[in-house]
Amino acid sequence: MNKWFEGENTDPDSGLPHLAHALACIAILVEASEQGNMNDDRMFDGAYIKMVEKYSPMVAKIKESHKDKSPKHYSIADNL
Known about the structure:
Blueprint: H1 2-5, H2 18-35, H3 47-65
């Protein structure tokens, strides 16, 4: 996914789209979880959720304080 976010669509080794690899990985996780044979070795149980819960009110406050503005949303197309 990191390579896809960086703009690379296709894995040079396999020739397959990075998003196809991501879908396959998620399918494997879902199947293993449903079968009850997943070795769940996530390192930070709940850390991401706690971080989102901590910062979400701050983001809402920032959005509220700038609601009268209309910033331009830049995309990769702006660099072409």
